[in-house]
């Protein structure tokens, strides 16, 4: 997905806790991202999320992208109960430990890092 291209102006220094959390856990996590280049929420959220993952050094092979169509159909959408996009599911050892769905009061990376802090 083009929307998963990291935002080149995202400022990692403004989000030290977020970067540190993902840097500490990145090798242990599987990150699944559902979205669409046609989706405004995805275009707003995912470039910054991708930039945060890059800044934290999360291995690219740990990040799986699943494009969906306008009807929210795509790979693994039924298995993961995807109704809104973007949806980001973070797993550790095959178990879901955090989920971001479409809109939260914080950016996706910050929201997920806060949830992951609870698992440290």
Topology overview:
Elements: H1 16-25, E1 29-35, H2 40-56, E2 63-67, H3 77-80, E3 87-92, E4 95-101, H4 108-117
Parallel strand pairs: 1-2
Antiparallel strand pairs: 1-3, 3-4
**What percent of residues are in strands?**
15-25%
What is the name of the CATH class? Alpha Beta
List the domain count as a whole number: 1
The CATH homologous superfamily is called Glutaredoxin
The helix/strand series, from N terminus to C terminus, equals: HEHEHEEH
At CATH level 3, the topology is Glutaredoxin
Mean pLDDT score = 95
Which residues form runs of ≥5 with pLDDT under 50?
none
Global Rg: 13 Å
Q: Give the second-level CATH assignment, the architecture.
A: 3-Layer(aba) Sandwich
Major beta sheet, specifics? 4 strands, mixed
Helix content: 25-40%
By DSSP, the count of extended strands is 4
Shape: globular
Supply the number of helical segments.
4
Structural class by secondary-structure content: alpha+beta
In brief:
The chain is of the alpha+beta class and 120 residues long. The chain has helices at 16-25, 40-56, 77-80, 108-117, and strands at residues 29-35, 63-67, 87-92, 95-101.
């Amino acid at each position: 997905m083009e929307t998963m291209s990291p935002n080149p102006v995202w400022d990692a220094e403004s989000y030290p806790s977020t970067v540190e959390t993902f840097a500490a856990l990145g090798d242990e996590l599987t990150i699944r991202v559902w979205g669409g280049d046609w989706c405004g929420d995805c275009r707003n959220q995912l470039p910054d999320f991708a930039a945060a993952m890059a800044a934290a050094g999360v291995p690219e092979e740990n990040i799986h992208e699943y494009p969906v169509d306008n009807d929210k159909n795509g790979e693994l959408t039924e298995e993961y109960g995807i109704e809104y996009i973007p949806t980001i599911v973070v797993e550790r050892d095959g178990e879901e430990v955090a989920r971001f769905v479409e809109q939260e009061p914080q950016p996706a990376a910050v929201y997920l890092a806060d949830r992951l802090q609870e698992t440290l």
